[in-house]
Glycosyl transferase
Amino acid sequence: MKILHVEAGKHLYGGARQVLYIVEGLAARGVTNLLACPAGSEMARQQPAGTRVVAMKMGGDGDIGMVTRLASLIRAEKPDLVHLHSRRGADTWGGLAARLAGVPCVLSRRVDNPESRLAVALKYRLYDHVITISEGIRQVLLSEGLAPAKVSCVRSAVDATPYLAPVDRAAFCAEFGLPADAQVAGVVAQLIPRKGHRYLLAALPALLARHPALKVLIFGQGPLEAELRAEVDAAGLAGAVRFTGFRHDLPRWLGGLDMLIHPADMEGLGVSLLQASAAAVPIVTSRAGGLPEAVQDGVTGILCPPGDVAALGAAIDRLAGDAALRARFGAAGRARILAEFSIDAMVDGNLRVYRQVLGR
């Protein structure tokens, strides 16, 4: 079996890392993989095991030339199936390219953004099957008219191994300029509006009054950074909030957090939450999209209504004041990741869909 994978993301965020897991797992199972990705991207530099990488121009939704370039690649390489892993034009233009080349096509849907029933009726004709990374996303597509037989849920996975090692607390505090007695909450997400950073900043002044040792580390990068920094300064929160940027060494430090906060308005599943659970970090997040599948309320963390600053603050206050609860949630989260979110299960799930599509 030969699969052409298309990943248009330029950075190695959660979705792109899932693609690496998939192609390496498929290669270990004897599948031949070809990965098309943007020239100069982090993905192009990864060179995953058992996969030939083709770096090419991918200009996003407005780059209609992607159709021609991808169709030419498909005709030259003759894959059995095309797997489109992202948006940024790869979904629509990649679907058209596969259709023009006469090759079956599968789309991975990683976000729960709503689409109109008309858009779903037209766009999803391009795909032989759709794989969602959470049941929440699958339900969104079903509600918008996609036929149940055309969509399957294969949850994202996490390689827990890098997150299992204990974190040296003194080294952690030194790395991020924190006092030894700091209680540390982290946010691991792109700096974009739907990730909900503003809700945490709104809740923070009242939390600091009750927990003066509380510090917040904001991991990630994105277009909202300047606005968030200005908001922190204007609110007088600069002493409590650190912007760390995108960290390639995140697995080394994630377990040093006392809690992870993810107050997103919408989310497909939330790979950073799976990583935090693997690191035995308790979580406060939103009851939105696939997040309730990543976090079990009252077992591995606390779920809040999306956008509810008061509920978010109350959940953080509860965890900040109860070390035993944090430890219990963290241990349960790690056990659940090891049992339910393995890379092997995700790879086998994708391979099962390929065989189903090719069998037809």
In short: The domain at 161-340 is CATH 3.40.50.2000 (Rossmann fold).
